[in-house]
Amino acid sequence: MVIKRALIIDDDEINNFICIKNMKDSNFVEHATYCLRGKEGLDELTDAIKHRPEDLPDVIFLDINMPLMNAWEFLEQYELIQKEFPKEVKLFILSSSVYRKDIEKSSHYEMVTDYIIKPLSKENLKRIQEKYFQ
Description:
Number of helices: 5
Low-confidence stretches: none
Strand order of the largest sheet: 2-1-3-4-5
Largest sheet: 5 strands, parallel
Oligomer: single chain
Mean pLDDT: 95
CATH superfamily: Response regulator
Shape: globular
CATH architecture: 3-Layer(aba) Sandwich
Helix content: 40-55%
Structural class: alpha/beta
Order of helices and strands: EHEHEHEHEH
């Protein structure tokens, strides 16, 4: 199953480029975009809820360490708007952090589907597709 829309929230433009390329090359997604800041991602989601719900992503990949608003701060705000989504959105932490405390902390958030260690490889995408989008 090809996912219609994906959103990456990560301050690393090179990583975002690689993620989108891998998603397209793997036939994972039809349309992928990115935001460089957590607040920008929240604004994008809020705008979509209000004005164009058909543009809400089916999947979000969220980096942990970003300036101004890290993943944990993002998730606190995301929880407030998530109930307004007209569909289920799967959210994955996508991080270079292999710290046990980050992995464990992510599991305390109900809206986090899984924790993926960068890079978002074609193998990871295949596993995500098979496990969560069948």
